[in-house]
Amino acid sequence: MIVPETPDTTGQPILPPPFSHYTLDVAYDEMLDSDGKPRSHYQELYHRLLEMPSETLHQRQQAANTAFLNQGITFTVYGNDEGTERIWPYDLLPRIITSEEWQTIERGLTQRITALNLFLKDIYHDGRILSDGIVPRWLIYSCKHFRREMRGIHVPHDIYVAVDGTDLVRLPDGRFAVLEDNLRVPSGVSYMLANRLVMKRTFPSLFGSYDVRPIDHYGQALLSTLLSLAPTGRTEPVIVLLTPGVYNSAYFEHAFLARQMGIELVEGRDLLVHDNIVYMRTTAGLRRIDVIYRRIDDDYLDPLAFQAESTLGVPGLLNAYRSGNVALANAIGTGVADDKAIYAYVPAIIRYYLGEEPILPNVETFLLSDEKQQQYVLEHFEELVIKAVGESGGYGMLIGPYSTTEQRSAFRQQVVSNPRNYIAQPTLALSRAPCIIDNQIEPRHVDLRPFVLFGEQVTIIPGGLTRVALKRGSLVVNSSQGGGSKDTWVLVEPVIEANQ
Amino acid sequence: MLSRVADSLYWMSRYLERAEHTARLIDVHLTQMLDHAGGDAGLRWQRLLRSLRIPQPAEEVDAYSITHILTFDEANTSSIESCIESARENARQVREQISSEMWEQLNRLFLRVKQTSMEQIWHMEPHRFLNSIKENIYLFQGITDATMSHSEGWHFIRVGRFLERATATAALLDTHFSVFLTEQTEYESEPLDYLSWVELLRSCASFEAYCKVYTATIRPAQIAEFLLLNAEAPRSIRFACTMMQGALQAIAKTTGARNQGRAERLAGRLRATLDYDQIEEILNGDIHEYLESIQRQCALIHSGIYQVYIAYPIEVALTSRGASQA
């Protein structure tokens, strides 16, 4: 197979259809190397696409879209009237990760989650890392998600974060870096599973031609992680998934996971606390609950302890938790460790608790609360990405190069009046992967959210959710901001170079 | 099963049965009006509202305004549209517990009703619309039986359907008998108003079934016997109570009923009454009181279900063997 490699006048490779619109830029390309040749693990996909008539590509994409529509795999967009249900755009072409790359990711994530759990235990107990001056005490106490109520509470097996979704990006040099930790109620895992299912149905021969590590055991893995959190002495622990209800944007996922695990999907009004024991109200009477996989934020969990007007939570839950009669996944107050200002300290946190160098680097981060750094940020406002520290899901952020003067000046005011609440990062050239755009194949920016489970051992499902910014040039991959997703393949065997 | 889920399934089903009942009553009534040109239409409409337990509107009513109240009026919580909307909202809360086919059918019906206006159906012939409501609800019930596992949730759906049917039919009979039986001393004589009795049978979707048992000879006592005590006709009160009791027994079995199964005992008593009572005795006694008593007992069964399965007091549940600590 001959791959044309004559660069055109602008230094772009000239590729045959359906790749005629494919370009390279400063971002790392997942499929092509810098000479415009497909990387060895993308060879098979690349050649199949060359041979595939464009109608077939179109038909397969249509079939995949229909599959999502029929299964009702939707999410809710806030801000429109009464929350509209939408199908999340799915791109048919897989994102492929080699087994070597995955090993690094896996080791890096294990290291990071281990350190973050030690960190959470420390700051809610002895605070050694604060006394030793590694992380400033005031920074912790000013975190939006720091929960005083958790001081000194024993958490089962010291596992604060049992379910984690870490956002990784690939830098132009090909290394993976951590962009964000999601230690509260990370979502997206149902899309990862649904994407694989649809992939196997619409592209079975391509899937079969690669040796891809399976992901279908996520439900069981999550269930055994939750079981391992059960209070000691409970022989047959009852586990439930606590959802805010049908109007929540991730309700589909809550229902999906409950079904996968065969556990009850409950709302706050189904639960009650008596003598510090949590029960659910069933037609066969009250049933004691041992572990709650909660998909409700701390703020709404217990109206007696947190937001008093919340109707989503369970009055008395915090006291039951404090008494050790029920386990929560994740624990209350984990948000302090995914505060974007604390993020900047994670490499130091890893060194402090584990005495190791971080395997996955952080993205360079400027703390606005630091005067010098603030000065720099204000001078380079239009080059940077500014993020509010306690937000997630692409809300509360400004992308300098893609913003208007008005947006910048509005944001600048907010930043100056409350610098603790903001950080800045360079605008990253996220890596790009091939996507089907109007029956042609073009590169689009992607990130990766692997899902980490921390129970008796650390389990990381090989792959994760690859989110893609489908709009040309866009860097925002969030579902709420017009992003889509891809199936993510982690290969079993190391790739043999074609000419070895 | 979560109490909340049981509650939603029960009400989803009750609301649909109510919508179907209302659609049938208006449909029969509008058709019957054609044969009654010149009669006292106002009185007849009042009777329809009474048999649906809907308060009389203050202003002057006519066919159009009453049909509107009963079909699309959002202020009327018993209108067809309100019932279907409530059923759909209940189903939405427990979407994971019902089959996708059920959800899709109910959602389609809801969207259809939402997109239809009173002007449209009046212009097009209301019968077509009302008939399609009935058919779509029958379809939903068929889909439910064919696609949902016949376990606890399904039984709650049946309890809702048959409890609603028993109550609604009792109210309808009561209204009818109070008007058409008072003028008569001899129940076996030719009825004064043949058409009204046919209308009653049709309102219970039972005209054909009645004719198969008693031929087309219209005798009030036979009609009363058929609609109250027939064991096989799916619209008779006795049939509905038998089904309801069966479903409640099945629920008690799965949940290991506490509180001595109050709801089933009440249902069993009602069923036994209907199994053994004689129509002559009922008619010689106070039939109004008899039908009222059926409605009262249905209300007691409803609260019994709540007491045992849905809104039981926590103290009771904690002291009885209900709170499984295992």
How is this structure best described in words?
The complex is a heterodimer of chains A (500) and B (326). Chain A has 500 residues and is of the alpha+beta class. Helices cover 29% and strands 22% of the residues of chain A. Chain A has 14 helices and 22 strands. Chain A has a 5-stranded mixed sheet. In chain A, strands 5-4-19-20 form a 4-stranded antiparallel sheet. By secondary structure, chain B is mainly α. In chain B, helix 1 runs antiparallel to helix 9 (194-203). The chains are: A alpha+beta (500), B mainly alpha (326).
The helix/strand order of chain B is HHHHHHHHHHHHHHHH
pLDDT below 50 for ≥5 consecutive residues: which ranges of chain A? 1-9
- Globally, the shape of chain B reads globular
State which percent range the strand residues of chain B make up: under 5%
Q: What's the quaternary structure here? A: heterodimer
Report the radius of gyration of chain A as a whole number of Å: 23 Å
Span of the ends, CA to CA of chain B = 17 Å
Main-sheet strand order of chain A equals 3-22-21-18-17
Strand content of chain A: 15-25%
DSSP summary: helix tally of chain B: 16
Mean pLDDT of chain A: 89
